[in-house]
Amino acid sequence: MEILIAITAGLTIASVIIIFNQIFFYRKYLIENRLKKIQPLASENSDDDVFRKSFFDRVGDPIYEKFLSFLSIMTPESIKDNYETIIFQSGNYKKKTPSNVLAVQIITALILTTVFGLILILLGYKNPIVVLPISLAGFLLPYFQLRTKARKRSLEIQNKLPDILDLLYVSVEAGLGFDMSMKRATDKIKGELSNEIKWALDDIAKGKEREEALRAIYKRTGVDDLNSFITAVIQAEQLGSNIANMLRIQSKMLRQKRKQRAEEQSMKLPIKMIFPLIFFMFPSIFIVVLGPAALSAMDNLKGLI
Fold this sequence. Notes:
Elements: H1 2-24, H2 26-38, H3 46-52, H4 55-74, H5 77-90, H6 98-123, H7 132-173, H8 178-188, H9 192-205, H10 210-221, H11 224-239, H12 243-272, H13 274-304
Helix pairs in contact: 1-6, 4-6, 5-7, 6-7, 7-8, 7-12, 8-9, 9-10, 10-11, 11-12
């Protein structure tokens, strides 16, 4: 048992060191990778450059990269697709991959398992089943954190979409082209949706088909309202319909949906307030109202006794 604890503690410490190195020296790694690309493939001082690297660069990075490669090979494609979708929707597609997320989940589970296992051993508990819920929670925590971030980003995009459509409609009515109107709207209204539209405009400028570039926005966001707007734009272009009329209808419809969602949330408030009222406010009110009467009753009972 002691050997197992020592091995687990050693693996946990190594994992913490690797994560610390990746978090705080990420920018340094990017700069070094860019310098490596512009340096010649062979140089006279190549052996000296290897020894100039830090211990973490020479030992930690290869181990971490092999670990990521192993996870990438062993992970089923369906799980990879699910993780890629969540990563794109959370806006972390430039920094994270499915293998990175899985590695963080595994390392977090190991750290929590080791810490709580040692605590339980010190307290005298020897049943290892108690640590299993902690391990599961540590494994799922990074995933749910990413999911929460994706939901918040999707909600922000959903709320900003009617405002951008209003500005698009005004710009098209003023005589601007649709692409120029989208660029003007992204310049005026900042946010995640503006960044996604800029990305699509850059793809179109580089030669990608307009339909493919616009469909990619929905893939990266997962907002259904945005998907309906993109579908309407593509159909209007294919059928030769009036873009301004389509934008006016879409803007009105999405503003109505936003109003309905706000009304729905407001109708849920009384139900959500029941439990805080029962557990926090009602006891205080009872103490204030019934406290003096209870004290007077206790004094009267003492007098009778």
